[in-house]
Amino acid sequence: MGALIASDGSAHHPYLQRLARNEEPLRDLSDAMHHICLLHGRHPGVIDHALGHARLGIERDWLEVAADAFVIERAYLVRIVASAGPMPSTPGHAETEAATAAQRHAIDMLAQSDRAGCATGAAIALAMDWAVIREALDAAGERLGLTPPPSQLPLAEETVTVVDTLVREGMLERAMLFGAQQLFAQHRGLWDLLEARASARDKQ
After folding, report:
1. Among 102, 122, 129, 172, which residue has the fewest nearby CB atoms (within 10 Å)?
2. pTM assigned to the model
3. Counting beta carbons within 10 angstroms of the beta carbon of residue 170, is it exposed (0 to 12), middle (13 to 18) or buried (19 or more)?
4. Domain limits at 164?
């Protein structure tokens, strides 16, 4: 899982890095916040669905903490979107809507998978990826005069311990890795889409 996060996680995507460093125009930050909200601003979300499929023990304990913490993240994201105003006008918006709907559907399918470990893998990937996504949220919040709430998501070290415990079961490990891979892929697709939308606005 650690190698997967290092290779497929969002931390290395150039566009998300620029958003997190507050290097993009406010309209691009606003656009990103709207689209992140489309994927992760609803309840129940990835972690909530995964909790519904979790077994008793360390898996359920981690997901309960993460689900409670994501309530704060979701509320913060919604505040940012409300403060940012409407989504910026962008050429090809209909195509973007279709792509975002497909991403949301794919993420929902992962989070509601009955395959043991798949939804938990997606939830863990979201929690680990959220660290850099939160940097972009904070960059937007700073521009909009919002005070970011402290993150209550489980520490990376705690998450790694949970993963180490769960992956001792071979079948569970494969399902968790699949869920994580697919979640990371949807996030990479989102950052690519947002970068393309920013480029299209620059050419208007």
Report:
1. 102
2. 0.94
3. exposed
4. 1-203
